[in-house]
Amino acid sequence: MELEITNIKVGVHRKESQMSEQQSSDPNDVTPRWVKVFGIIFLVLVVLFVILHLAGGGFQGHMS
Amino acid sequence: MIMNPSLRKFALTAHVTFSVGWLGSVAAFLALAISGLVSQNSQSIVAYYVAMDLITRFVILPLCFASLISGLVQGFVTHWGIFRHYWVVFKLLISILSTVILLVHMRPIAFLAKVAAEGALANPEHRQLMVQLVFDSSAAIVALLVAVGLSIYKPQGLTKYGRRKIREQKAMPNVGTRPL
Question: Which residues 6+ apart lie within 8 Å of A31 measured at CB?
Answer without folding.
Answer: B86, B157
